[in-house]
Amino acid sequence: MRIDSIVLRELHMPLVRPFETSFGVTRDRRILLAEIRSEGLTGWGECTAGERPFFSGESTDTAWQVIVNELGPMLASSEQVEHGGSCPRIFKQVRGNRMAKATLENAIWDLEAQREAVSLSRLLGGVRDSIACGVSLGIQSSIPELLGIIEKELAAGYQRIKLKCKPGWDVEVFERVRNRWPGIMLSCDANSAYRLRDADHLVTFDAFDLLMIEQPLWHDDFYYHSMLQKRLNTPICLDESIHNRRDALASIEMESCKIINIKLGRVGGFSEAIAVHNAAQERGIPVWCGGMLESGVGRSHNIALSSLENFTLPGDVSASARYWVDDIIEPDVTVNSQGEIEIPDIPGRGYEVRMDMVERLTVRKETIRSFAMVV
Ligand code: OSB
Ligand code: MG
Predict the structure, then answer these.
(1) How confident is the model at residue 43 (pLDDT cuts 50, 70, 90)?
(2) What is the per-residue pLDDT for 306?
(3) Closest Cα to residue 339, out of 45, 135, 147, 194?
(4) Mean pLDDT confidence for 149-157
(5) Mind listing the domains of the chain with CATH numbers?
(6) pLDDT computed for residue 80 by the predictor
(7) Measured between alpha carbons, how far is 370 from 281 in angstroms, rounded to an integer?
(8) Ligand nearest to the CA of 299
């Protein structure tokens, strides 16, 4: 396909409620959207980098710079981009910056699905008509407040509750939640808040029958997680540590984890997400789709990805209304009473972008030129 234009925007979107993790609080999102036009069609991509480089080394600002100055011109200059799967080769010279790369690659997959007149889910190889949903609940100011939120999310149908945790917000919280709801699917996510010297403490988590403990140790580690896993009955799930298929293979081989969280931005886009999914599937390791407080654009990509066969555990992909008063897509993402999102059977992502809202929320905008046009 011929790339006619690439427009990058930054949108400011306030969250419905603040989201607190062990590394900080997010109140307002600064979201980058890529809009790629090709032969009468428009593909959309969203950058999942955070406002500050706390989850990964990337941030909204680093991604903006790398897309405008490097990746965008590389893509605009390439003669033919037939597939989303061609993007990793086009971006090969740029090291890291996976969230920036995924922004553009995922928009090309969206275009490809529209051109082929298939849903993005089917283009990726998805086999499901609906996906199982869980919620990720941030650290709250008190346990009663958290219990109230859990009650509401369970009533809405969500199949799994994930609790953000850190030293001081862990066993007492799990105890109170388990006492009230002995049978629910419950997990926790530490975002690297512990060290191996906390192993004795982490072993006490086993009493709460958690589905998994996500990324307890260093963000870039496999080895110490493998040492910790030997001591825990609770499966470890890796998030931050997994950037590509080789990381997935290393962590599985070393038994650093028994479950993998796949995030599109963290692994650099759909091509690598599928590669991680397949590597895990071949080795009997279940995966699920993580979230990064996305707008409807990124959310629709997560929904399509979650339809692949080995996404057998409920993900962190949930309804638009949990994040936004007004989402930028139409219809909103909604969750049915069984705690599932139904996958739209429409060419492309299956949700329209509300251009009026996008324009209203845009605080900067840049049209990206090919290298040939710059010189
Ligand atoms: O570790 O999964 C994480 C949000 C921001 C950064 C990291 C994480 C998260 C979440 C939120 O858990 C998931 C969601 O989008 O609801
Ligand atoms: Mg996580």
Answers:
(1) very high
(2) 98
(3) 135
(4) 98
(5) 5-117+355-373 (3.30.390.10), 122-352 (3.20.20.120)
(6) 79
(7) 39
(8) 1
